[in-house]
């Protein structure tokens, strides 16, 4: 598929790199290509500069948002939650119309320190905001409940742990489930939560995820739904 | 132990009944004993009236909040989240001083319909509100991430699924872990999330829990933290 990944951080790189390995035609979108490539320091999470990552992922082209988003089949929103709506606006409504948007972002707000709070929650969610802003796009919230490493390599965590999908369009969810399968998520680990409103629950899980990160001592974990 | 369970709903009954079976000295607190015993209809969740439950649990005495809370060693808050602070106020600060309060409640707000939203979240939690209101009590948030049936009978769900504890007082958490052990939670299934602030995460998990309830088709499930 012709896939655009929005965002050049850890999550965007993990998804773009893996999807390119899987022989998809992948481009990455950023606000300002020159600025992104000009960075020489590691980011706050300790990730090396994008230019360094690009050297080992030359199949993946970096483009400005609007160009990255044009004539593509599927858009992955892997920007910071606080910048997601602006990034999608830069891509442009015409580029998003009819397209599947996989929304992986979490609306984390670090302005009051760590651990972060959510910039939207409880009565709304980032997934719903994106769907409302682009009613002709087909938003599927998924993969936002785990680390980037686990997203693209679920086998690194043992057991039948789960990935959630939420979205209003059944055919978009089918497309996403198939792509999740390519990333290593078997059908029985994909849990369909219903419409995009359920994005609220998966985003509001983040504070618990952050506490678990501390209790487990790192991001190499995920949750399994145990049932009879 | 001399244990008071506040709340006469499904959760209060499940905990009071099981703790009494385990030979604890259990009383249940309610706002108005006469009114609680006078109800003849099932509640909105389909639970039979309290008076009917009491017939098969005669070791458990029903008392007004203040009386139920006096001279006890441990208080379990199993009231509706929206009524928890009022219930604890009725118990009275003097009765709560120095005591362990196990807070099992969730601040669910059904005023905007179903699924409910939370009446407090993101920048605060019910657990923190209770701890702030009674700084001399020792609040431990636990068991609020599962159905009442699973709380008191974890073996009904297969696998090493987890129960979270969060609280500022280490000795109170030890007491609670030991009581969880009596309820059937082995040590390795008890996940200590740190201070009471982590109550935010376990309460904000509720919207996801409610979505999972729909996906699973009932409350007989719980989450396992899978890790390397």
Overview of the molecule:
Two copies of one chain form a homodimer. Chain A is of the alpha/beta class. Chain A has a single domain (2-216), classed as NAD(P)-binding Rossmann-like Domain (Rossmann fold). Helices cover 36% and strands 21% of the residues of chain A. In chain A, the strands form two sheets. In chain A, strands 3-2-1-4-5-8-9-10 form an eight-stranded mixed beta sheet, sandwiched between helices. In chain A, strand 1 (2-6), helix 1 and strand 2 (25-30) form a beta-alpha-beta unit. The interface between A and B is large, with 41 and 41 residues.
Question: What secondary-structure arrangement, pairings included, does this model have?
Answer:
The structure is a homodimer of 228-residue chains.
Chain A: E1 2-6, H1 10-21, E2 25-30, H2 33-38, H3 50-55, E3 61-64, H4 65-68, E4 74-77, H5 84-91, H6 93-96, E5 100-103, E6 108-109, E7 117-118, H7 126-133, E8 138-142, H8 148-152, E9 163-167, H9 170-182, E10 190-192, H10 199-204, H11 206-216, E11 221-227
Parallel strand pairs in A: 1-2, 1-4, 2-3, 4-5, 5-8, 9-10
Antiparallel strand pairs in A: 6-7, 8-9
């Amino acid at each position: 598929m012709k896939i655009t990944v929005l965002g050049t951080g850890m999550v965007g790189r993990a998804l773009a790199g893996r999807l390119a390995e899987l022989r998809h035609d992948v481009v990455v979108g950023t606000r300002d290509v020159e600025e992104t490539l000009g960075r020489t320091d590691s980011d706050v999470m300790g990730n090396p500069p994008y230019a360094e990552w690009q050297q080992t992922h030359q199949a993946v082209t970096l483009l400005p948002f609007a160009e990255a988003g044009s004539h593509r089949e599927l858009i992955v929103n892997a920007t910071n939650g606080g910048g997601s709506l602006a990034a999608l606006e830069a891509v442009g409504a015409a580029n998003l119309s009819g397209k599947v948007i996989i929304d992986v972002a979490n609306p984390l707000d670090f302005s009051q320190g760590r651990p972060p709070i959510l910039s939207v929650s409880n009565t709304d969610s980032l997934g719903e905001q994106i769907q409302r802003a682009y009613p002709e796009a087909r938003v599927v919230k998924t993969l936002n409940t785990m680390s980037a490493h686990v997203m693209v390599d679920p086998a690194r965590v043992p057991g039948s742990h789960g990935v959630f999908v939420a979205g209003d369009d059944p055919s978009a969810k089918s497309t996403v489930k198939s792509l999740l399968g390519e990333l290593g998520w078997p059908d029985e680990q994909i849990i369909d939560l219903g419409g995009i409103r359920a994005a609220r629950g998966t985003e509001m899980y983040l504070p618990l995820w952050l506490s678990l990160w501390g209790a487990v001592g790192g991001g190499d974990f995920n949750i399994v739904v145990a049932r009879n």
